[in-house]
Amino acid sequence: MPEYLVHQDAYEKANQCILIVGPGRTGSTLTGRILQTFAGIEYVYESAMLHTLIPLVARLPRREFQLLFETYLYEEKLIELVAGRAWNFNEKDESSILKVKSESEIKARTGVSLGKLSAMEKARGAVLAVKMTDVTPFVGRLKEIYPGMRFVLTHREAYGCIASLLKKEWFSDETLRTRGLVWNGIFDEGMLRPHWVPEAKRAAWPRMSALERSALYYREMYAALNGVQGPYLFSYDRLLKEPAPAVRDLARWLGLGMTPGTERILASVKDHSAMEKSLLDGLSSTERAETLRFSDPDYVAGLMKE
């Protein structure tokens, strides 16, 4: 049976890709908007296809995974982005290009039609950044296939993250019984059990409170990176308190330049965070202590150095 291959540029661009990973509600959307303003970045927001495909990295044969992953990233996303055919112009959406690019930048991209070869040439000077929460259990395997891939791990203290998860009702019984609202899992007796729920917690999952599920999610997303070296921990709490230094450090680590668009985003960052420390009182003392360990960015960073 013949082996199907994508252009070599596809592997190189996947290998250069930046993935924004971590739990949801940790500032990943704002982080993605910041990266989108860096020079040379083309940005993909929460791809439904990648939410399905990345978890298969541990199950598909390596070459088959690469064929699907690289075709999607390169042909469906990067080429379409540099050709000006893949931006979101809905000004109400968080992923709207109107929030990060000036009118002149948009017109320069959309005012010309590029053929495939011209788009490929333009893509060689671009770096693809993708926001993908919930995929931290697969970062280690992705690094094996794409050693040059970079990961920006968003971190937020537990109180703020879990309060936001509860407000969004991501892990309420009602949400988990609604197909399509949460990615990747198994429906068991009409309730979604996400892929990251550990074996020891599967039987208890349907009986957990939304608080217990949210805290488990928070812990599992960071615990999955234990021993995985290389991700850059980007603190949402630091970003709110000192946005310019936080973003400069991120740009320096990535080796990318900031633009006037970056400055516009920084000017809009406000610290509205407020911690309600009694929030975690509904957890057992053991769960509360374990959750607060992951609330310490130095602890999470230490896990990735072991």
Strand content: 5-15%
General shape: globular
Number of E-type strands: 7
Strand order of the largest sheet: 2-3-1-4-7
CA-atom Rg in angstroms:
20 Å
Q: How many DSSP helices? A: 15
Class inferred from helices and paired strands: alpha/beta
Biggest sheet: strands, sense, closure?
5 strands, parallel
Q: Kindly, what is the distance between the CA atoms of the first and last residues, rounded to a whole number of angstroms?
A: 42 Å
The helicity comes to 40-55%
What ranges have pLDDT less than 50 throughout 5 or more consecutive residues?
none
Q: Mean pLDDT, nearest integer?
A: 93
Order of helices and strands: HEHEHHHHEHEHHEEHEHHHHH
Q: Would you write up a description of this structure?
A:
The protein is an alpha/beta fold and 306 residues long. The strands form 2 sheets. The protein has a 5-stranded parallel sheet, sandwiched between helices. Strands 5-6 form a two-stranded antiparallel ribbon. The mean pLDDT is 93. The termini are far apart. The protein has 15 helices and 7 strands. The chain has helices spanning 8-16, 28-37, 48-53, 62-82, 103-110, 116-123, 139-145, 158-168, 173-176, 210-223, 236-241, 243-254, 260-268, 285-294, 297-303; strands spanning 18-21, 41-45, 127-131, 150-155, 185-188, 191-194, 232-235. Helix 1 crosses helix 4.
